[in-house]
Amino acid sequence: MYRAVLEAVAANLDGDARETYLPAGERDRLLMQWSHNPGATVGRSVLEMVEERATTSPGALAVEVGDTRVTYADLDARANRLAHELRARGVGPESLVAVLLDRGVDLVVALLAVWKAGGAYVPLDPAFPADRVGRMLADAGAQVAVTQASYVERFTVETVLPDAPGRPSTPPERVDDLDRLAYAIFTSGSTGRPKGVAITHRGLTNHVQWAAEVLASRGTGGAPLFSSVAFDLVVPNLWAPLVSGQRLWLLPPDTELDGLSAALRKAAPFSFIKLTPGHLEILDPSFAYAPVIVVAGEALPGPIAEKWRRVLGDGNLINEYGPTEASVGTCVFPLTRLHEGIVPIGHPLPNMTMFVLDANLRPVPAGVVGELYVGGTGVARGYVNRPDLTAERFLPDPFGSVGGRLYRTGDLVRWSADGSVEFLGRIDDQVKIRGYRVELGEIRAVLLDHPDVKDAAVVVHGERIVAYVVGPTDLAAHCGQSLPDYMVPSVSVAVEWIPLNANGKVDRRALPDPDGAAGERPYVAPHTPEQERIAAIWGQVLGLERVSIEDSFFDVGGHSIRAIALVGALRAAGYDAGVRHVFEHRTVAALAAALATTAAPAAEPAGVAPFALVPPQVRAQLPAGVVDAYPLSQVQLGMLVEMFADEGLAKYHNSATFLIRDGRPFDAEALRAAARTVVGRHEMLRTSFDLDRYGVPLQLVHAGAELPVTVRDLRGLDEAGREEAVREHIARERADLFDLSRPPLLRISALVESDEAWRLGFTHCHAITEGWSQHSLLMEVLDLYSGRPAAFEAPSVRYADFIAAEQASLESTQDSQYWKDVVDAYAPCVLPPDWGDGPDAPRADLKLPIVFRDIEDRLRALATDTGTSFKAVLLAAHLKVLSTVTSEPAFHTGVLYSARPEAPGAERVYGMYLNTLPFAHDGSARTWRELVRQVFAREAEVYAHRRYPLPAIQRQAGGHRLFDIMFRYQDFHQVDTGRVDVRAGAGEGSNEFTLSIATQPGFLVLRAISNGLNRAGAERLAGTYRAVLEAMAADPDGDARAAYLSEPDKARLLQDWNDTEVEW
Prior knowledge:
Blueprint: H1 2-11, H2 24-33, E1 36-37, H3 46-56, E2 61-65, E3 68-71, H4 72-88, E4 96-100, H5 105-116, E5 120-123, H6 130-140, E6 144-147, E7 158-160, E8 181-187, E9 195-200, H7 201-214, E10 223-225, H8 235-243, E11 248-250, H9 260-267, E12 273-275, H10 277-282, E13 293-295, H11 302-312, E14 317-321, E15 331-334, E16 347-348, E17 352-357, E18 370-376, E19 382-383, H12 387-393, E20 394-396, E21 405-415, E22 421-426, E23 430-433, E24 436-439, H13 440-448, E25 455-461, E26 464-470, H14 476-480, E27 491-494, H15 529-542, H16 560-572, H17 579-584, H18 588-595, H19 616-621, E28 626-631, H20 634-644, E29 653-661, H21 668-681, E30 687-690, E31 698-702, E32 709-713, H22 719-735, E33 746-752, E34 757-765, H23 771-786, H24 799-810, H25 813-825, E35 827-828, E36 845-851, H26 856-865, H27 870-883, E37 890-898, E38 914-922, H28 928-943, H29 950-956, E39 965-968, E40 980-988, E41 995-1000, E42 1003-1009, H30 1015-1034, H31 1047-1056
Parallel strand pairs: 2-11, 4-5, 4-6, 6-7, 10-11, 12-13, 13-14, 26-27, 32-33, 35-37, 37-39, 39-41
Antiparallel strand pairs: 1-17, 2-3, 8-9, 9-19, 14-15, 15-16, 17-18, 18-21, 20-21, 21-22, 23-24, 25-26, 28-31, 29-34, 29-40, 30-31, 33-34, 36-42, 37-38, 41-42
Helix pairs in contact: 3-4, 4-5, 7-8, 15-16, 15-18, 21-23, 26-27, 26-30, 27-28, 27-30
């Protein structure tokens, strides 16, 4: 290369210094050998090849979906009839026809019919919002749409149903032209406007011809279609089987993603399958699906690929790359070895070219990063009705024949030494999310359409789209009106302004971390392999891309449930960890040092086999359809006893509704399908209780259960009427108690308020679920309902493992002695008797908020400064308030804990894991810092014994009730507030505590039963909570032993009760 540069300088001092001067041999490799792949000439269209199969093999199976099977002859005849109908509606050469149909035979018929009529199809996804569909049709100039009856109202253009009775079954006359338009697929646009990519029959056939020769030829089973036809990745799956005389198998449209593996196995073997890396992750590696699998749509990680390569064998897993603008595919890379990072995208397909160029369209040397330009037969005609954008992205080919063009991909790549291309990332803001191409600029444009949004920026963090907004952040419903689900930001962050760099572009490094405080502290990288492993586990549990080794677990999103999940993940990785380690060693650095020297804690019971916790004679008596049985937990049993002793209070029978603003009409069948899926996944939703038939109270897990789903339409009511209807609904649900012997002990309801919003209601028996499980269930049902479920893999741990762990704790002398010591050494905290109305007065349930949002940042800073948790700060405030109402210097009071097993996946197992335990407290702390640290240390102590059930503690204390006050810390971060309006929720439940304090974002909720704490007493107490919180926020080194009274109490003490003036 030096020689080439020197020769150029010597030959012409006025030569182009920007030119790339490569040795002759390398230039030939880059521009000829590596970049070209001459192939067979394209002679016939895909349509002609399919028609030929209908002539030569009329009785062969062409399309299969569920129980429906259609031959090539039938398929051709149906397409001909519809083609005549389309001709009658004015469809001819170059006409663009929208196609919006559910996955089924009619979809294939419609696509063929559009071609037979001479037109080109515009495939649309049923999940697209109506607004997006309208803009696509306007840009395409489409005047006709083929659709089904349920989608007709989405169109303003003329619609045609796929069934065309009375039309001829012979093909209409036409003149085939390979350079005529075949289809236009709309992809995300950087200006906020989707752009239609115009693909010709020649470009389409070039790719399908390769797929038929290389992929379909590997078998006779055809290929499956299970993704949207609005996504061009499916083109080979759709057309290669049909041009080869094989079957096209369609996944029934009502099949959820978690059923894909079973459905494919049942229909296998196929000749080939093409899918995305995300699909690979939810399928078990197996040769049974097909002899060859093609992966495309987004970058393929090496570890995922390697699992499949080992099963399929060398060369049978193929990574494919290709923008829509290159007719599906540009290049392929068959895997023959392990790849640590991203798998290369390989070499050009037949009749395609690839060039790696610099900003001046000059080739860069092998190994140097440049932009990928693709050319050849597959290059699209351009963008439909967008000549400006076409001219910008489709450029004359400086290395090819006259008239040739290159498409500028915007992808950063480099040539490797073996002549394959390695993908490195994007130049612009275009990304892939779940296999779909997304222009972040389009999302920003939609955000700016909101009247209250002044500015916005959109970036990608991991797999999440994050919107930074100057204005309101509750924008999910607004975005959902114009964007498909995969483009709606999953996180919105409020900012005062959008930071710009010196070039006037968004300075992404200056944007705040969407995960909160983690981004506000300096990042310290791991120093040792152990720190690196533990940091990676933290990141996995907390959902963070990276974790500083100096970050406190509780400052970066950690809490009790996540601490349990972290311990499970650490144990799965071979570390001898317990929850107490997380409390005592709160950073990666400290935890790595501790785990290097700490002995293993007691082994966690796990892997309990079905029926292992009941005697054989009991199992023999169980009814058919029961797949497991085990005892109730002590807390479950206590709840049921309270329920049976109920005096019309409906204790532990809870009902709540959540307002869903999804910007689309409600779909009852989708909700019922989601209900069926969650019942099948989770044992606790198929569980019933039997208290007396088997000698010991049991919970029975049934093989199946029908979850009731009711729907009520409130759209005809005004706002006041809807509110009243919601209250009536909750009252009815609360009055309708469950038969505990019949599962499920859960009901789902939907209250439809408008075409854009509805309420999702849950009524459940508290004995089968608690807050964390309930909120996880809420999001799981919503994800399934919305058609975007995450891959589900049943955890290895079950609720039966929790029962086994409780039984082991009951046998533990250490656990029983710990709680005996607490109860013996600390008196119960009791409210003053005159603060209530008395046991004979009518009962009233009270609820008061105690807002601390205005001082929350200072309270959280106290947690950070003391190296503790926010829970410890609020619990310390609670204990301080209780110390002002009792004369006992040392006391205990109820604090709610989760006793979930410390095993991987336990946080995803629904059940009732709560255990309210007597928390010991004394008044020895002198400052707020000292008090918070003292409470946090006590928390770590409690966690080691949290499985010992409260009823057992009460029995060993003489059988009396230990406390009537309870503190509950809640952090249900799994709820997507972009879809669920938590502020507009409604619900009602009941428990037995005279006073309970629960945390909510920005405030505490004080609940009281008037017999023991009436409204006047509750208001006094609420004022004291606020006074204590203000004192803690104002001065962390302030006196924690001083009296902190509410303003009314101060007035009574200092003025009213000291006013002794009398008349003589």
